[in-house]
Write a structure and sequence with these properties.
CATH architecture: Alpha-Beta Complex
Number of helices: 10
Shape: globular
CATH topology: Spore Coat Polysaccharide Biosynthesis Protein SpsA, Chain A
Distance between the termini: 38 Å
Number of strands: 8
Number of domains: 1
Structural class: alpha/beta
Helix content: 40-55%
Radius of gyration: 16 Å
């Protein structure tokens, strides 16, 4: 069985939209929403669509808590502002049966700008060639391999980067279709160019060896 895990924190503005689109695609598969201490209406909304658990705040901690509570032998990790197309879960099952250890989904950003199409291509290439998967691309993995890795590293930032590095050491990864749909809210709030520049800057500094604590502080100050 597949378990889909979504960490949330004060996501009431987007959660109804994404869960209402995601939940029908899952059918009888498990949906776990992990709250990190929301003070808005997020929990009430989430309870309409899946099982809600609470954990300490922090994306990695919430993802690991969701995995611990899940009953599926396949885990899919998503951000709160994405949803899957029909057939996505079957594509994951097929990839894992074919010998891949995990991967992500090809992207579709929910906006019309040509810049979004460029971002989709770069994100798809990142997953295909660099084998780096973020929650906005979705991350899927067998539970056994998730446990071999030790879950997501509980660090202040870039936990998905660390997990991707460990995942690709286990074997081949794959970007699958149908595509994952992503809300354009982040880019609309701060501008496409600014948001993308910040993301690339943080990634660049990560590869230069900046400490995760410094990167987390910088990200909070400039986002």
């Amino acid at each position: 069985m597949i378990s889909v895990i979504i960490p949330i924190l004060n996501e009431e503005k987007i959660l109804e939209k994404t869960l209402s689109r995601l939940q029908p695609k899952l059918k009888n598969r498990e949906l776990i929403i992990v709250d990190g201490g929301s003070t808005d209406d997020s929990i009430r909304i989430a309870e309409k669509y899946g099982k809600v658990i609470k954990s300490e705040q922090g994306r990695a901690k919430q993802l690991n808590a969701g995995a611990a509570a899940a009953t599926g032998d396949i885990l899919i990790f998503l951000h709160a502002d994405v949803w899957l197309e029909q057939g996505a879960c079957k594509a994951v099952e097929s990839a894992l049966l074919s010998g891949y250890v995990g991967g992500g989904f090809l992207q579709r950003i929910d906006g019309r700008s040509i810049l979004y199409r460029i971002l989709e291509v770069t994100a798809d290439m990142r997953g295909k060639y660099l084998k780096v998967f973020y929650g906005d691309s979705g991350i899927f993995v067998k539970r056994t391999d998730f446990e071999r890795i030790g879950g997501f590293p509980e660090v202040p930032i870039m936990e998905e980067m660390g997990f991707s590095k460990a995942l690709r050491k286990l074997g081949k990864t794959k970007m699958v279709k149908p595509r994952i749909h992503i809300s354009a809210r982040r880019w609309e709030a701060n501008g496409i160019v600014r948001t993308t520049t910040i993301n690339w800057l943080i990634t660049f500094l990560y590869f230069l060896g900046f400490s995760l604590e410094r990167l987390a502080k910088l990200y909070r100050n400039i986002r």
